[in-house]
């Protein structure tokens, strides 16, 4: 029998794959979002050098508007522009809520800030939640019967 089909390799090599090098300089975007404010700090990968800072209070005039998604979005755009001027091409995002005895969920500005960082042209590496969760702590305030409103 004469087989005219092209021969394909019988054995495939499974070795260590080459690690793709990240082009350009990367940083870490620390997004702290509470009910009252959103603070974006972009640092180098070690976290030792601060590259850019933005917060809701730097954007809006009224205190009650500091925690809004609009203020978070504008401050993230400004921080991203400063970071790009310094040569940052991508960021890993660390989202933090107040935590501890306070709320464990980020405020309304966190999602807007993450979307703004992505839309500003920065590459997004990984997004992680770094909210401090108490494992063994002192008693939560409020007393035996809780906070009476």
Overall description:
This protein is 19% helix and 26% strand. The model has no long low-confidence stretch (mean pLDDT 89). α1 (69-85) packs parallel to α2. A hairpin with a 5-residue loop joins β2 and β3. The chain is α/β, with parallel strands linked by helices. It has a domain at 26-129: Ribosomal protein S11/S14 (Nucleotidyltransferase, domain 5). Strands 3-2-1-4-5 form a 5-stranded mixed β-sheet, covered by helices on one side. The protein has helices at residues 69-85, 109-119; strands at 25-33, 38-44, 50-55, 88-96, 123-129.
Largest sheet: 5 strands, mixed
Distance between the termini: 90 Å
CATH architecture of the domain at 26-129: 2-Layer Sandwich
Strand order of the largest sheet: 3-2-1-4-5
The level of helicity is 10-25%
Order of helices and strands: EEEHEHE
Low-confidence stretches: none
What shape does the CA trace take?
extended
Summarize the structure.
This protein has 149 residues and is α/β, with parallel strands linked by helices. Helices cover 19% and strands 26% of the residues. Helix 1 runs parallel beside helix 2 (109-119).
SSE blueprint and pairings:
Elements: E1 25-33, E2 38-44, E3 50-55, H1 69-85, E4 88-96, H2 109-119, E5 123-129
Parallel strand pairs: 1-4, 4-5
Antiparallel strand pairs: 1-2, 2-3
Q: What structural keywords apply?
A:
149 residues; alpha/beta; Nucleotidyltransferase, domain 5; 5-stranded mixed beta sheet; extended
